[in-house]
Design a protein that fits this description.
The chain is an alpha/beta fold and 349 residues long. It has 13 helices and eight strands.
Length: 349
Amino acid sequence: MRIALVADPDLPTELAVRVARDLPGRLRERLGPGFDWQVCAHTAPLAAEEQVDISAMLTAVRPHLPESGWDVGIFLTDLPRRLGLDAVSAEVSTGDRVALLSLPALGTFHLAGRTLEAVLNVVGLLVLPPTGRDRFPAIGRRVKGDTEPGRVVPDRYVMPGLRGRVRLLAGMVRANRPWRLFTSLSRALAGVFATAAFGVINDTAWQLSTALDTWRQSLIMVLSVLALAAWIIVDHELWERPGGRVPKARARLYNAVTLITITLGVLCLYAVLFVVLTGVGALVLVPAPLSETLNHRPGVTDYLVLAWFLTSSAMVGGAFGSGLEDDGTVRKAAYGQRQRDRLAEQQNV
């Protein structure tokens, strides 16, 4: 039994390779030695539109399937799939022995294990008769597909309700891998450090850091993070216009994912800068000059508060640096833009 896993680039491909390695053993454990399982993973952008059906998917990826043939085809995509407002985790066409697995619906945590279990269950649905599928639980609530002439209408498995929508949103953010955005903002990082370096040797900054109470410091931190995140989104035109290139509901979803992704990336930048400034302050700022400015001998709290204030202030300088970034390093954080880039690359090929 030959299983072809075709996956979107980046995270879906990484997961497909891991699944291809572990799936044969798990299938033998579940079904016994009756089949000789052969699993191969391939990379191909599966679709440009979120709601494209399985028949169009199959046409798009058929050139990437093994020339020697396949018995079961499973597509792993980081595109969100929805039925109304509910998240769709899997679409299964038993007649064609093909299925589509939407990774964002699987959530954020333990994604590799969840993907393996989802593929395992989908294989059971595709290769076993209905009476033998009890050992393979469905991935969500089944919505049976209707018969339409000339079009594949698969069975859909949805994650209904608010929990499914939150899981979809979190899964999309996870697919964006916001912690990688930090490494893409090298020029913004230079602006942040330049601003912070000036503050370290400025006695006015020392006085302000101790004069501000906790809630003001917290407010400055929140505003500086949001300001840098908003600047990156606006400057690089990452915001989807509802009713423009994409439908309103999808634009709202994409914008929420972009905002969360960029904000998490900026928070990673904030955390790294805070740690660095704490170390630099402890190394460079000896107690004597600080004592004269603060009118008391500085302790650990003074160094932490100073680093907190300087980090928040420096994020404003990072906004100017972010405007110098190459759009290609930032646009991957925008879900809709990333999909359009993949489509453009596919058409150029």
